[in-house]
């Protein structure tokens, strides 16, 4: 990840240099521009936005990586170290289709033999069968995932976080705490930029959204959980639009949003936005929640203060259940092969 502003050889080219060249082109060819450029992207385009920061082009004044893919091992493909087979196979079956030339049509991926996701994966067998039966060597990223099942040098070399230094543009990192794809990227992009760029304008928004949910709907519901009237609209009107307007249009870039807090985070349950001067909040304390009988949760460990808790009527008999992949317990209404 060189992201050099000057790239004298074909090898010294990456998303950062592509951004630099694109900005140069837009400034020269774009009509009626004021010489200031902003960049925004969600998910994979969020990765492009992060990499665009590394262009360090002087005209790039504001950038917003939103739910950005950041580390290709931890984002999307692995969740806390566990391989995310259903989501990964379904996603790359579409997204990973080779497109050697520009096209207006999304190529169809291999068709699965059944719409029943549980039945499909029970019948699939070992992981090697995915490529042998369906992908046939066509998807490079899938092959890389299978060839590098651990966080080895291959993945570490593709991690942009160590390079997020000496950034010039103001940054607004956005994500949702119901994001099943790129929660890692959202949190770690913000924290890395904050740590490695003292004094840079770097703000954080964390709402009640699914992946990209702030851009394609009101964000009022996730499943049957309600979050109140349009958190998405509130964010767009009070944070995103003022952020870009200030840095791209105002005579004094950044001045109009000087009072915008460092972190704006939605509190579920009470369904309100809260603001903080740091994230995590400076006064935050890490605590452990323990499982208790009957689906209960408690900050008290089941093995501490037993006599006192028994007097209070708390029973510490354990629950048990059988986990049998051949007879799975459904947890979602849809069980497609690409389910997430």
Provide the descriptors you would attach to this structure in a database record.
340 residues; single chain; two-stranded antiparallel sheet; 12 strands; Rossmann fold; 15% strand; alpha/beta; six-stranded mixed beta sheet; disordered N terminus; 30% helix; 10 helices
Task: Describe, in plain words, how this protein is organized in 3D.
The two termini are 30 Å apart. The protein has a domain at 15-71 and 159-276: 3-Layer(aba) Sandwich (Rossmann fold). The chain is globular and about 65 Å long. The protein has 340 residues and is α/β, with parallel strands linked by helices. The strands form four sheets. Strands 1-2-5-6-9-10 form a six-stranded mixed sheet, with helices on both faces. The chain has a two-stranded antiparallel ribbon with strand order 3-4. Helix 8 (183-196) links the parallel strand 5 (170-176) and strand 6 (202-207). It is 30% helix and 15% strand. Helix 1 crosses helix 2.
Rounded to an integer in angstroms, the radius of gyration calculated over CA atoms is 23 Å
User: What is the arithmetic mean of pLDDT?
Assistant: 88
Strand ordering within the main sheet: 1-2-5-6-9-10
Helix amount, in percent? 25-40%
CATH class of the domain at 15-71 and 159-276: Alpha Beta
CATH H level, superfamily name of the domain at 15-71 and 159-276:
Alpha/Beta hydrolase fold, catalytic domain
First CA to last CA: what distance?
30 Å
* CATH topology description of the domain at 15-71 and 159-276: Rossmann fold
Principal-axes shape call: globular
- Secondary-structure element string: HEHEEEHHHHHEHEEEHEEEEH
Portion in beta strands: 5-15%
Spans of at least 5 consecutive residues whose pLDDT stays below 50 are: 1-5
Number of helices: 10
CATH architecture descriptor name of the domain at 15-71 and 159-276: 3-Layer(aba) Sandwich
For the biggest sheet, the summary is: 6 strands, mixed
Briefly note the structural class of the backbone.
alpha/beta
């Amino acid at each position: 990840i060189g992201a050099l502003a000057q790239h004298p050889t074909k090898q010294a080219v990456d998303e950062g240099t592509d951004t630099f060249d694109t900005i140069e082109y837009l400034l020269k060819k774009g009509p009626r521009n004021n010489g200031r450029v902003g960049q925004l992207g969600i998910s994979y385009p969020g990765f492009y936005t992060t990499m665009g920061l590394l262009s360090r082009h002087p005209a790039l004044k504001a950038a917003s990586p939103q739910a950005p893919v950041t580390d290709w091992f931890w984002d999307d493909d692995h969740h806390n170290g566990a391989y995310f087979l259903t989501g990964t196979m379904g996603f790359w079956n579409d997204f990973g289709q080779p497109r050697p030339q520009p096209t207006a049509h999304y190529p169809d991926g291999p068709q699965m033999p059944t719409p029943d996701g549980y039945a499909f994966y029970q019948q699939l067998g070992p992981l090697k069968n995915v490529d042998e039966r369906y992908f046939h060597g066509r998807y490079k990223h899938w092959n890389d995932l299978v060839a590098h099942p651990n966080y080895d040098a291959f993945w570490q070399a593709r991690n942009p976080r160590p390079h997020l230094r000496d950034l010039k543009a103001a940054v607004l990192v956005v994500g949702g705490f119901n994001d099943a794809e790129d929660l890692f990227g959202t949190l770690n992009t913000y924290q890395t930029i904050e740590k490695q760029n003292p004094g840079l304008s770097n703000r954080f928004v964390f709402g009640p959204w699914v992946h990209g949910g702030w851009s394609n709907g009101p964000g009022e519901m996730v499943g049957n959980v309600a979050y109140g009237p349009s958190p998405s609209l509130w964010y767009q009107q009070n944070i995103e639009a003022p952020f870009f307007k200030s840095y791209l249009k105002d005579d004094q870039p950044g001045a109009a949003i000087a009072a915008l807090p460092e972190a704006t985070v939605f509190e579920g349950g009470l369904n309100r936005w809260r603001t903080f001067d740091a994230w995590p909040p400076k006064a935050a304390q890490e605590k452990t929640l323990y499982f208790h009988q009957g689906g209960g949760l408690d900050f008290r460990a089941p093995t501490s203060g037993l006599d006192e808790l028994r007097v209070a009527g708390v029973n510490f008999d354990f629950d048990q259940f059988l986990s049998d992949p051949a007879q799975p317990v459904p947890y979602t209404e849809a069980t497609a092969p690409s389910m997430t």
